[in-house]
Amino acid sequence: PPRSTLFPYTTLFRSASPSVAYGSWIEIYGSNLAADTRQWATSDFSGPNGVNAPTSLDRTAVTIAGQSAFIYYINPGQVDAQVPANTGTGPLQLTLSTAAGTSAATTVTVNTVQPGLWAPAPQFIVSGKQYVGATHLDGTFVAPVGAFPGYTSSPAKPGETITFWGIGFGTVGPGSPPGQVAPPFTTLTLPIQFTFCSTPAAVPAYYGLAPGLIGLYQFNVVVPSVANSDLVPLTFTLGSGANAVTGAQTLYTAVHN
Q1: How many helices (H) and strands (E) does the chain have?
Q2: Residue 234 and residue 196 in contact, taking contact as beta carbons nearer than 8 Å
Q3: Do 49 and 64 meet the contact criterion of CB atoms below 8 Å apart?
Q4: What is this structure's pTM?
Q5: What phi and psi values does residue 242 have, to the nearest 5 degrees?
């Protein structure tokens, strides 16, 4: 299926965010949410070349403001869905339906952007510090050597291109709406600035949706020249001026010359 095997959506960005954005992945918890347990399969996709994600799996479906969400995973206690476009913003009504009927509505706040970087907990927490889930070009992780049990990691070097992953960063061009497999090349509509400690990085070499995946953003960032440290604070700002949004996560990475 057109999804990431490295980053299963069920563990991508588990956090208690008070709001979501168009295209964000959300987890819904409860009881009797589905008749079985499975994730989407290639056969669930539709449209030309199978690029359209399913809006129901085995009769489990989700709506937000009356718009059908896209369903990645179901089990009786959890459903993972992608927020559709055209819902509007603000406090909106979410319902879940199965063959047995439709749930009472609950409220979810939808914003145009609600950005977050991939930083899995507790796997990437070391001595109480949350590391961003950055990768080298060879797919190994950016962190102190041996920081994450079971994963290969090493610090980044100044001048090296590393990759961050995220959700909720807003629209891209050319248009690639929620629920569709991303094309080979897109660019965020809003500018983005990454900062290592107090040193800004150059404009990312790539900042758009991850090609071939759904709802996952990819940022190829050249590491600026900073002092050697296993705890380099990492921040980002999306947009500019009065409407700029600063990432709410407290994140670290490792950089050694």
Answers
A1: 0, 26
A2: yes
A3: no
A4: 0.90
A5: -65, -20
